[in-house]
Automatic annotation (TrEMBL):
Record-annotated Carboxymuconolactone decarboxylase-like domain positions: 16-96
Keywords: Oxidoreductase, Peroxidase
Protein name from the UniProt record: Alkylhydroperoxidase
Keyword Oxidoreductase: yes
GO molecular function: peroxiredoxin activity
Listed transmembrane segments: none
Length: 157
């Protein structure tokens, strides 16, 4: 499969990506654990069907030491026993923040409160930005049909 558009050859996309990458770095530098960030990125990408992001975040997480069991169970995290309560709260926030069209109220107060039990205001801000960023990246890739499978760890760092 070929991409509909070569985003790396576009001056407009290049300018936008420069800012997107800076936003991504700000989230990466937050105190939200890197493992949690990768799990959230993976779950959002699964929901949105973004193969290139699933490829990227699975490989980055594995490279950072994430176990195959935890990576393979992200799609069924509610039934899995391998995640901490904090990770579960972040995954739940990611799901409701991604499925806003499915739930008329967006993120429920109960989900927000569970996340707030484990993350301070700065970490919640980082999680919100990360969820929104991943949804943006997923949509860009879905619209342009970016192919998956060739990502190499660290490719965009």
């Amino acid at each position: 499969m070929d991409a509909r558009l070569n985003l790396f050859a576009s001056a407009t996309a290049g300018k936008a990506f420069k800012h997107m990458m800076a936003a991504g770095r700000a989230v990466k530098e937050s105190t939200v654990p890197a493992a949690t960030q990768e799990l959230v990125a993976l779950r959002v990408s699964q929901i949105n069907g973004c193969a290139v992001c699933i490829d990227m975040h699975t490989k980055e997480a594995a490279h950072a030491g994430e176990t195959p069991v935890r990576l393979n169970l992200v799609a069924a995290w509610r039934e899995a026993t391998v995640y901490t309560e904090a990770e579960r709260a972040a995954l739940e926030l990611a799901e409701e923040g991604t499925r806003v069209a499915d739930g008329a109220g967006g993120v429920s107060d109960e989900v927000w409160e569970r996340a707030a039990l484990h993350y301070d205001e700065e970490e919640l801000a980082a999680l919100v930005m990360h969820i929104a960023f991943m949804n943006l990246a997923n949509r860009i890739n879905a619209i342009t049909r970016q192919p998956a499978g060739d990502y190499e760890v660290g490719q965009f760092h």
